Amino acid sequence: MPLDLTAYIRDVPDFPKPGIVFKDITPLLKDPGALEAAVQALAEPYRDANLASVAAIESRGFIFAAAVAVELGCGFVPLRKPNKLPAETTSAAYELEYGADTIEVHVDAIHAGDRVAIIDDVIATGGTAAAAVELVETLGGNLVGISFLIDLAFLGGTTKLGDYPVHTVITYNGD
Ligand code: AMP
Question: Could you give the residue numbers annotated as active site?
Answer without folding.
Answer: 60, 97
